């Protein structure tokens, strides 16, 4: 039992190390911890969202909403090193070519192309505009929920699709989510989103609108890459995280507009 708890602790540290640039204490790494880490992705997302939310709430006491939101987004980018945003840009660069083989080649190219740059700017602008339009406590709750459910969205792709490269960043985590791990990821992702909504005083219907937006982002992202590739790559996981997170913000904002 103690050995299992220690293993899960190392898996959590591996998830933080894999998804973020946050300092992680040294631990005896085993490759199987990276596979076990997938179930912890939503909780790591909630941690990133919480950091961004605290920055937003603190900055909102001093600065106007646009400055507070941009500072929060900048801190989130620094915390992750733009890991998921890079995947989004690579996917959209790949969508600009016709063949599957060429698409995989373009997505592996580290250079940023026109399609990727436009997608990145559009998504970042949508996130900023949506969060600026919310009151600070609502935006803080949306950041926690968006980052947690965005990572859960990536876990759902890992659990239900096929990794298509022979090797790559996401290869060690492919096929790593069993029913128990998926249930844990869903519970922690949904729990973090619910806790954020409760702290912000949002009614369940607001969280439901956000979930609907995140689901729309998930479906849109998968429609962009699954038919073309016959599965997913690490870049696709970043893209589905970004579009699900953005969808959640737009869903909450839509609810605010009709409440």
In short:
With about 260 residues, the chain is mainly α.
Describe the structure in your own words.
With 259 residues, the protein is an all-alpha fold. The chain has one domain. It has eleven helices and no strands. It has helices at residues 2-19, 31-36, 41-60, 65-80, 83-94, 100-108, 114-132, 136-160, 179-199, 204-229, 234-258. It is globular. It starts with a helix and ends with a helix.
Please bin the fraction of helical residues.
Answer: over 70%
Shape: globular
DSSP summary, beta strand count? 0
Task: Give helix and strand order, one letter per element, not per position.
Answer: HHHHHHHHHHH
Number of domains: 1
Measured distance between first and last alpha carbons: 49 Å
Q: Which blocks of ≥5 consecutive residues have pLDDT under 50?
A: none
> Which structural class is indicated by helix and strand composition?
mainly alpha
| Integer average pLDDT | 92
The Cα radius of gyration reads: 18 Å
Instruction: Please state roughly what percent of the residues sit in beta strands, choosing from under 5%, 5-15%, 15-25%, 25-35%, 35-45% or over 45%.
Output: under 5%
Counting H and I runs of at least 4 residues, what is the number of helices?
Answer: 11
Describe the main β-sheet briefly.
none
Features:
259 residues; mainly alpha; 11 helices; CobS; cobalamin 5'-phosphate synthase activity; magnesium; transmembrane helix; transmembrane
Write the layout of secondary structure elements.
Blueprint: H1 2-19, H2 31-36, H3 41-60, H4 65-80, H5 83-94, H6 100-108, H7 114-132, H8 136-160, H9 179-199, H10 204-229, H11 234-258
Helix pairs in contact: 3-4, 3-8, 3-9, 4-7, 5-6, 5-7, 5-11, 7-11, 8-9, 8-10, 8-11, 10-11
